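[#protein-structures] MJ: dropping Aldehyde dehydrogenase (NAD+) here for a structure pass
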Amino acid sequence: MAHGIENGQRRYGNFINGVWRDAVQGEVLTLKNPSDGSDLALIARGTAADIDLAVDAARAALSGLWGKMTATERGRILHKISEAVLREIDLLTVLEARDVGKPLTQARADVVALARYLEFYGASADKVHGNTLPYQNGFTVLSVYEPHGVTGHIIPWNYPMQILGRSLGAALAMGNAAVVKPAEEACLTILEFARIAHEAGLPTGALNVVTGLGAEAGAALSSHPQINHISFTGSLRTGEAVQAAAAKNAVPVTLELGGKSPQIVFADADIERALPFLVNAGIQNAGQTCSASSRILVQREVYEQVIAAMSERYHALKVGAAEADLSLGPVVSTRQKAIIEDYLKLAKQDGLLVAAQGEIVPDAPKNGAYVRPTLLRDVPPQHRLAQEEIFGPVQVIMPFDTEEEAVALANSTPYGLVCGVWTKDGARQLRMAHAVHAGQVFINNYGAGGGIELPFGGVKRSGHGREKGFEALYGFASLKTISVYHG
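AK: finished. structure tokens for Aldehyde dehydrogenase (NAD+):
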């Protein structure tokens, strides 16, 4: 059975060339519900043989109907898919909540974001223009953008729908055909999206989805000689492996590898306005966000005031089952819970001070992967909890005295993804925006990646390349120069 219900559980095959297929080797993986530890669904354990089939289907689509469509026609299809996603918002919301562990409100917002990505890129598909370039007399020189061909998309488990939208939406708008390898921990909404897109009119083979382990299906996709571009979002270590594999085929890669993003609060800041951003940007999705604000840097004059105000909000945080729709759900797995708890054990061992913690509600299912959100104060800048991406609901807060010290602290980690700056001083706002090493800087706000329209990506070990916004379209295309001599 490639797709359907088996023994009361959903079962999904790989989606290749418009049909559901069991993995070539016939093996499956079991997804767990992080809210209670129960079995959630069966997915195919794809391997290199399945990736081969998916790449072949995508390449055939480029020679067929999909490859012959105009940019306007591609845009119209993306609009139809966007509308279809919204019609299935209830199903996608529940699946995302159960699969990832997100509270229902957050899961529903992700469905809306997916639809918006498709709407945005649908409207952008026929707006990518080349140029005529001044050159010697007797020549006309043009530049045009062409699709790479077959693009590979390796999607993480923390925001399956949002990251699919920003990556796949732009790739399809530019006329690429895609092979998607979602995370084995959480992939149900991506599989349902493949069905939705096909039913909405996306030509056969333009989108193919192969599930499985990263070391098997993911590695096969990264190293495949017929893949022309790879988009990867995930950990630094895996990103290094993806880039190394792609380099053997001289294939371009867009990498978004996480961060240790600071929010910097100066004494003149509007602290009441800042407070929800200071807390929510750290605990949203149980802290499992690449652009989470995991470091809070506060000028010493208001340091205790900010700690007290954040602590009050932390004490009100409730953690429970995703479908209870509380402040936080579980983290994605017991494995991830263990990683986070090891960091908290290290904090205790090294004498770091807990400023405040949230509460796991008494009726939270016993086998759920729950972690208390934790705010740690006075953390030394070089401590592991101030340097490493924890990927859980843990924030560290530390003081600074001068603007120069704030810049040094902000730039003191290997990452450079997002930064927030809170100050009413206009000159300082611009100085900080230029001085901080980050792909995005938010002044008196913090968007955790920002809206669909804002280019997103990092510097240093947060990766390279940009997705989201119009800029993403250029990354999913190759620039060709055409020189015509006519005398």
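MJ: nice. The domain at 261-450 is CATH 3.40.309.10 (Aldehyde Dehydrogenase; Chain A, domain 2).
AK: one more thing. The longest strand covers residues 139-147.
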